[in-house]
Every structure is written in structure tokens, then in C-alpha cells.
Amino acid sequence: MIIPAIDLIDGQVVRLYQGDYQQKTQFALDPLTQLLSYQEQGAQWLHLVDLDGAKQPLARQTQLLTQLITALDCQVQVGGGVRSEQDLQTLLECGSDRVVIGSLAVKQPQLVGQWLERYGQDAICLALDINIINGVKSLAVSGWQQDAGVALESLMDQFLSRGLKHALVTDISRDGTLKGPNVDLYQQLSQAYPHVCWQGSGGVASLDDIKAMRDSGASGIIVGKALLEQRFNVKEAIQCWPNV
Hints:
By secondary structure, this protein is an alpha/beta fold.
């Protein structure tokens, strides 16, 4: 499945390079117009990241998110700075079909595991951002600025018993680089944890990358920068990897 994505700062469509707010590219695009275009081309899911909320939850773009989601007919997953159950509830109240939780899931797995049981496995997607160092999939937190000292496999052991179904994994070294996704990574994860719906993220630059990910065992791929730069469109991507 193709999951088009946009990142938002102060209502503007942007992209960060490897999560760095100092390396920001702003696109002269209206976010709703862009999302509607993705929807009209066949996207069944869209991925929104509130980078203001990620940096400071009190700055969350709640009104904008509500306006965008309300205007769309497809399903939407939203992430950005979930640090409390109130943050989770706020994003659900905005209309999000699924909330993406990153650093908190690594720092407080017991708490997020309780939310999985309370809200249901389809309401939450873990965002697991990793640096691969000597073969170890090491989790990063706090906007990728800190190494959590936890391996991905260790965290998975804690969440599988809570019914984890959705996980988005980003190889940080590929994010925003257009160097191609880490297909081997998603093959390893889908083989090791076949009951998890893995979403790939980072590096997609071409339709060949889409085809490679289609055969990786992942359930979907997040595509952001390549679409914004018009390297291909959503319709073409879905022709390579049809929605199911």
C-alpha cells in the first residue's frame, strides 16, 4: 500500500532532512489541496506529521488537523509529539483513524502498551526510528537526537504481548535522502514478525523503489519528498503496488 505523507510546520508543507529542523525545505503548496490530490489519485491512507506538535505539544496544530481530516474521505494516521494520553485523545478527537507514537513508546513501553489494549490495536501505530550500527537496530528518540540504548527486537518483545499490529520503521540514514529505502531491513522485520503490519519510511526516490518495497514483505510505504518533488505521482505508485 502507498501511504502519501506531508509534514506540517505552522500550516505549511515542509520536509526535514533526517529530522533536522535546521535543514527544512518549504513547499509552496496548500496542504488540503495536496491531500485531496493524493486521495483523488487513489490513496486509501494518508500520513500527517505535526512537526510543531512534535517539538512542543502545546503548539499542536489541532485546528488545522481537524480541518484537513474532516475534508478528506480516506483514512488518516497522524503523528507528532504524543507524550501523554491526553495527546493521544486529542489526535483521535481531531478525526485521526490511527495515531502514530514514537519516542514515548520507547521510553515508556508499559504505558503505551496499556493504551494499545485500551484503544485497540488499529488505533495506534508505533514509530520506530533506528540507526543501524554494526548490525544492531538501535532505537533513537527525541527527534532522533538521542540513542535510547534499546534494540528494536527488545522493544518488540514487550509490545507483541499487548497485541501490536502496526509499526512504522524509519532507517534514519535514508530519511529525506532520496537514496532508496532499506529493503533488506523490511524483509528481515516481516520475516521475524509476520503478524505485524510494517510500514517502511525513508529514501523513496523512484518507482523502482516502490517495486522493491512491494516485494519486501512490508504492508505499506510512506512516500513524502518524492511526491512533493513530482518524481512520480500517487497513481503511478499505486500501479506499481496496488492497494489491498
